Amino acid sequence: MRPPPDLRRAIADDLRPVAPLAPPFRRVVWLMPIALLMLVAASAIFGARRDGPALGLLLTWTASVAQMILGVALTAAALRESVPGTTLSRRALGAAFGGALFAAVTITWLTWRASPTVVRPGFAAYVWSVCMAGTMVSALPLLGAAGWLAARAFPVRPRIAGALYGIGAGLVADAGWRLFCHFSDPVHVLGSHTLGILLVGILGSLLAVARRSALPR
Amino acid sequence: MERFDDERLRELMAAYQAGAIEAFDGLYVALAPALLSYLAAIARDRGRAQDLLQETFLQIHRSRRAYRAELPVRPWAFTIARHVWLMEVRARGRRPAPDREIPDLPVPPEVEGLADRERLRRALDLLLPDRREALLLHHVWGFSFAEIGRLLGVRADAAKLRSSRAMADLRRTLAETGTRG
To answer: Could you give the ipTM of this predicted complex?
Structure first.
């Protein structure tokens, strides 16, 4: 069975040497400077949360670094998912998405328990919009970079790959944003920060599908 | 069907990535027959499978950078073929697949002696599509259950379960039709 002449000609006309992509765990290292920048940016620009002393190192920096590492791990999983033949099983995907949600809820609950701070009446909508927009906007650099790295492979399930790196970027962004926002009320945190993470996941998914659809067929 | 060992396929992929058109020829010779059979089985149309095969090799070409030497080549190529088929199904606007019987396929050696080819083909046709796909991938094209799991996006044990249930269904159907016929 030989290749049809038309196909062979099309391939020959476009054939040039390419370097194979590095493994996902190595490619995700390239994203670490962006992730570290996102971790420190909000508190460096707007100031650290006021209840920091009450929370201690464990519930401020340690929790945020752990959340950042989880976000980067989800991004690595997205890069793996983007290579044909190494797609993730449903169980692995369930563990990834479930782990992200579990981490967000656990950190929220522990923070609330250590330092319960609520939004003043009348400011809820304003604070809600600032924190959700802040989480989403600060996720964009990592979302863009991870999307570019994933698209260089060949994601056969772009919706899933995009959701993985989108939620990963959202987690990293929120890891930084929570070091600035001092409201620990779960209604505020889950309704704006965690919702922001989920929306970045949806955005990543939509962008990955759009990028895939734009490729020649 | 000519079988190529994975080591040879990996060498061909490396040469293809380095820009050798002869390596593409070698890969086509090695992979096209199995890919065509697979596409015919999931698309249920040999004519359409021919078009999908050409599209699969174009996508393999576009994504050749994503292949790494430590990955087995056949699961990588089959995953792309499956993706091409799914894209084609979506491009047709989610219209249901034509109600055709599956074309003549290689038959799992384990059941070859149980009936004539026509009865085997009809029995394969009656299997649930996801079970049939796992059965054929394992028993005809020789994939491990871990590879099938990654290809179908399920766990290895789920792939094994699908394949073994398909085999049990196939034996039962053959026994029933044998009794009736």
So the answer is: 0.79
Q: E strands, B62-180, where?
A: none
- Tokens, residue B157: 């044990």
Q: How much is the pLDDT for B118?
A: 81
Quick check: B172 pLDDT over 50? yes
Q: Do B67 and A20 touch (CB under 8 A)?
A: yes
Contact indicator for A184, A51 with CB cutoff of 8 Å: yes
Q: Is the pTM of this model over 0.90?
A: no
The model's pLDDT over B60-84, given as tens digits with 9 standing for 90+, comes to 999 999 999 888 999 999 999 999 9
- Which ranges constitute the DSSP H helices of B63-128? 73-91, 117-126
Q: Which amino acid is at A45?
A: I
d(CA B85, CA B35): 11
CB-based contact A39:A176 (threshold 8 Å): yes
**C-alpha to C-alpha distance for B100 and B111, rounded to whole angstroms:** 23
Chain A residues inside the 8 Å CB shell of B33: 1
Eight-class DSSP state of A28? G
Closest residue by Cα to residue B71 from B30, B10, B17: B10
Task: Using alpha carbons, select from A32, A28, A38, A34 the residue that is nearest to residue A152.
Answer: A28
Residues B12, B30 contacting (CB under 8 angstroms): yes
The whole-angstrom separation of Cα A105 and Cα A55 is 16
Residues of chain A neighbouring B4 (CB-CB closer than 8 A): none
**Cβ within 8 Å, pair A18-B72:** no
User: Which of left, alpha, beta for A98 (phi over 0: left; psi -120 to 50: alpha)?
Assistant: alpha
Q: How far apart are the first and last CA of chain B?
A: 32
Q: Do A87 and B155 touch (CB under 8 A)?
A: no
